[in-house]
Amino acid sequence: MEKVNCMRSSCKDVFNAFMVSEAEYAGKYEFPALLPTSKVPNKLITFSKALHRDDYNQWIHFYEDDASFERIWRNPRRYLPILKKFNGVILPDFSLYRDMPLAMQIWNIYRSRAIGHWLQREGVNIIANIRYGDERTYWVCCDGVPKNCVISIGTHGTMKNRIDRQYMLQGLDVVVKRLHPTDIIIYGTAKEKDFQKFLDLGIRLHRFDSEYAIAHRKEKC
After folding, report:
1. E-strand stretches of the chain
2. Are strands 44-46 and 59-61 parallel, antiparallel or unpaired?
3. Mean pLDDT, rounded, for 92-107
4. Distance of CA 69 to CAs 134, 149, 195, Å?
């Protein structure tokens, strides 16, 4: 692909082209391709909390409100030194709602992949976050993600009713068939009956409680 934007020195890089200046692209929508990873987080912390902590023996994740981490897209270089201090990063979980225009869903997948490619280039351990909305994104959400490696999903807020759970599990079926992951990091709810079939396939599941679940449990104590 010709790097036309790189030659326009007078233009401000408003869409972070520097992130993908050395990328290879995958799929119909040309998402930046990521390198495989076999690392599994020992502990997770949200991006917003990580900015104010000095316990770096853990992985940063973005399973929180988009407003809490949109800044990493607006000014990624500012946060790189902080991200490098931690064990690794689960890539941003930009929202994909089923009632969002498809173009916006594709853009949010692209942004996560672009950040991932850039972080890997900068020496940061990353795990691809897989987020999809409805059937239109079940396949495209895998583009740029290597097969036979570790991936991550967030289930918080996606298993609250029958319809949401149906979309979540149907999409994960497609993801598993396409990517054949060795391990799946699950942030949030993971009932055994919903995920047993993946264990039966030999996939290792690693579940981490959501911030909401942890806070709710503390309230009961």
Report:
1. 25-26, 31-32, 44-46, 59-61, 88-90, 126-129, 150-154, 183-187, 204-208
2. parallel
3. 95
4. 23, 26, 29
Long-range CB pairs of 8-14 (<8 Å, 24+ gap) are: none
What sign does the dihedral 23-25-31-36 (CA atoms) show? negative
Q: Given a cut of 80, is residue 6 above it in pLDDT?
A: no
Q: Enter the DSSP assignment of 141.
A: G
Which domains, and CATH codes, for the chain?
A: 41-220 (3.20.20)
Q: Is 60 left (phi over 0), alpha (psi -120 to 50) or beta?
A: beta
pLDDT digits (tens, 9 = 90+) for 121-132: 999 999 999 999
pLDDT in tens, 194-205: 999 999 999 999
